[in-house]
Amino acid sequence: MQDKDTTKFTFFQLLKPVCSITSCEQIDSLRVDKYAKKLSTEQLIILIIHAQLEQYVGLRDISNSLNENQFNQAIYLDSISASQISRRLRDLSLEVVQLLFKKCITEIGKEIGFDSITRQLGRIYLIDSSTISLCLSQYQWADFRNTKGGVKLHQRLRFCEEGVIPDKAIITSAKPADKTQMDELIVIGKDALNVFDRGYVDYKKFDKYCANGTRFVTRLKGNAKIELIKEFPVDPTGLIKKHQIVYLGTKGINRMKHPLRLIEVEDIQGKPVTIITNDFNLNTEEIGDIYRNRWQIELFFKWIKQHFLVKHFYGTSQQAVQNQLFIALITYCLLMLIKLKTGYKGPLLNIKRLLDVCLYEPFTVFVQKLYYKPKRKSKGRRKIDHEAAFQEVVKQVEADITVYSAVDFLV
After folding, report:
1. Alpha-helix residue ranges (DSSP H) falling in 65-199
2. Is 238 part of any domain?
């Protein structure tokens, strides 16, 4: 789906990881297009990526998007019905979108230079999940509550100076607790530090991680049983309010075998936040800063929910929902790749907005517009000198009084 002319355009640069020869060969090796008559897997994924960027609400909107000549020429598809898109999305193997997701992550790693960052900072991973509510009558497989269905996106992000990068995703129904996917998301390695919220607190797993050298930082629940071993002095005027070595759990029931560090800090509202970790090398300020960066994963979930269509699905089957969510993550990775390739330091949303108007223009034009700074011809909004204005009004009033007095004299 590429030639020497199309490669120059922003559309191809955005979709390069999906449309590359390597990706096409990998998709072909899975034989997913064996019975496809008109809509290939590559075309289907591009249609959904385009729909995510444009935030199309339904399948008919996706079908009608092919009425745009530039778009249908770019993907070599004149038309396709909504029902055909629905069937292909439902039947598309999850292995395909997961493969493309991993490829995008690899491309980001090459662009960002993960190896050099790892040597300097180590690997920091943020782990959390986000629930998307669904109508139970339409999504009967999505167990959540008695009156409501839901799907849960379990996410592991890699934290770096450029922002957060998706690293692994697991999609389940919303009912299972977060910690059921904990072992799948935790990264084992001495240079890896896993950061997660109190929804993942599990003393048995913590003992296992301490035994195999897996480092973690998390927040402690308010009702946790704590056995104090040692307390360190802290500066009462500093950010760190408490630093201790403790055992967690009740003796004889669920008490941990390994000791942990307990660090208490204050949030921006002055409320205490209790952090625990099995890392005894980082100082307390570093641990506090690392846990505060956990909020980046919340911002990530908020971003994709606001700017991609992940709260409204194009299919009701479990596979269709999972495929759409993975394609949304692929789309996010594609935007991040554009940001890294152009060296742009501004918000990712600016790239998404500019793509709406520059998708079929040369990539060089897109980059020029991305960095364009309007020349200010005006001096901007000027400040009003209220005192000078008042004195001017006084002078005018006094002048009017003088005129009226002269008229009265002549009369």
Report:
1. 69-74, 82-91, 94-112, 114-121, 182-185
2. yes
